Amino acid sequence: MIESSLAHLQMASSQPQRLREQVQIALAIADASTLRSLLTESTPPLALSDRIGVLRAEVGVPLPEGGKRAMDGVLWVESIECALAGSRPDLAAQPSGSDHQPYQDLTRCHSELHTLAQNISLSEAIALLSHAGFQSEQISQILHLPAQAWHRDWWYQSDLSGHLTLPFCRAIRTRRFADGRFSLQYRDFYALEPPPCFQGIEVAIPVEFKPADQGFGETLERVNGARRHWGTDKALVISETLSELEVQGLTRQGVSLYQPRPQALPQAADCSRCHQANCPLQGRIHSPVLTCQSYDP
């Protein structure tokens, strides 16, 4: 876990290269839930929890114009921009007021015909639709549509605050070929702004570890170079040695910060002298415990 791995780093150590390697290892072995926490618990948060899709991390990524040292890491995040109604508990199966006249207001504009996937196998089509939130029965209906038929569902796209609240209608059709492969196409019907994509957009977030001996200017230079390279306005700096001015400077430059919470190291313990009243071994003279993080002499 990133949190537990980084919490034990001695950031003020005189071996910044070794610490950098530990950060990269922590990123490399982190699971999706840990990476999600890294995004939502940074300051300011890099993403809302309900807008995060598929996550993956790369470490030691070279920069063409980044000097001698590679970027410590890059987080690739699927930013969810559209979601199928009813696919999550927080998304109503049907927006309010979509039965009669308001329906026309919600769908008065329509997009061009988009190709979601072309000439893909059955398993690829099922995986694609499953990832979008369709259930097995819906997937079967979509893949067995007659040639001129459409499958229609309500979806939501994000509003100005970043939450998925704006309803629109999406029509999907299938083209089946003699060799058993499929093409999927869709058209959106919306009120004002067209949905930006089918479901999510992959965003790169460069990750930079800042040890105590790395200056503010060098850190920002590397972060800006990485942001230009990946065409993103987001970045994450991991450090436990930032001054208040550095925190203000980085956040005002659009950089999010993650500062690991230090964990108490175990210390020699004597349960007979400990004052932790909630511990079942408190006061025990012959306790087998030799070290304890919660020891309170």
TrEMBL record:
Highest taxon listed in the record's lineage: Bacteria
Q: State what protein this is by name.
A: Uncharacterized protein
